[in-house]
Design a protein that fits this description.
- With 157 residues, this protein is α+β, with helices and mostly antiparallel strands.
- It has a single domain, classed as Nuclear Transport Factor 2, Chain: A.
- Strands 1, 2, 3, 4, 5, 6, 7 and 8 form an 8-stranded mixed sheet that branches.
- A hairpin with a 6-residue loop joins strand 1 and strand 2.
- It is globular and about 45 Å long.
C-alpha cells in the first residue's frame, strides 16, 4: 500500500511539475524579449543583444550591415531612412509560436512570423513577413549573431 501511494504521489508531481524549457525555447524567448525592448525604444538593450560584428540584412539601403557596431549602424540607417520616407512609430509585432526554432545548446536558429507596423505621413501601414535569427551562447545568455527581415511591401491598414 505504501509503495502504491508513493508511486501515485510521484506520478502526480511529475504530471504537475512545469516542464523545463529547452535551448530552442530559451533562444526564442530571448528574441521576443529583445523585440519587445526594441519596440519600447530601448536602443541600449537592442545593441547589447548583438555580438559585435553581427550580420544584419534588411529591406532598405545599404541592405546589409556587418563589422564593428553593426547594430548601431543599422539603427542609425533605419532612422535616416524612416525620416526620409516620413515614417514614424515603427514596431515589429510577432507571433508567439515560431515557424521554426532549433538549437544544439550553443547556437540557435529562430524564425518568427512578424508584422512591421508604422505610420507613413499619417497613414497606418503594415507588412507581414518574418525575421530569422541566428544566435550564439555567450556564457548563460544568448546573443544575436545574425538576423534578417523578409516581408511583403507594407500597405495601408
Amino acid at each position: 500500500m505504501t509503495r502504491t501511494l508513493l508511486l501515485a504521489a510521484v506520478s502526480i508531481i511529475a504530471w504537475t511539475a512545469p516542464a523545463q524549457a529547452g535551448p530552442a525555447e530559451d533562444a526564442t524567448a530571448a528574441v521576443t524579449t529583445w523585440l519587445d525592448k526594441f519596440n519600447a525604444g530601448d536602443a541600449e538593450a537592442f545593441y547589447a543583444a548583438h555580438v559585435d560584428g553581427a550580420l544584419i540584412v534588411d529591406e532598405f539601403a545599404p541592405f546589409v550591415w556587418g563589422g564593428p557596431q553593426s547594430a548601431q549602424h543599422w539603427l542609425a540607417d533605419y532612422m535616416k531612412d524612416a525620416g526620409a520616407r516620413g515614417i514614424s512609430g515603427g514596431r515589429v509585432d510577432y507571433e508567439k509560436t515560431p515557424i521554426q526554432a532549433n538549437s544544439d545548446g550553443n547556437s540557435a536558429y529562430v524564425v518568427l512570423p512578424t508584422t512591421y507596423r508604422f505610420s507613413q505621413e499619417g497613414t497606418r501601414m503594415a507588412g507581414k513577413g518574418s525575421m530569422t535569427f541566428v544566435l550564439i551562447r555567450s556564457g548563460r545568455d544568448w546573443k544575436i549573431a545574425s538576423w534578417t527581415y523578409s516581408g511583403a511591401t507594407p500597405a495601408a491598414e
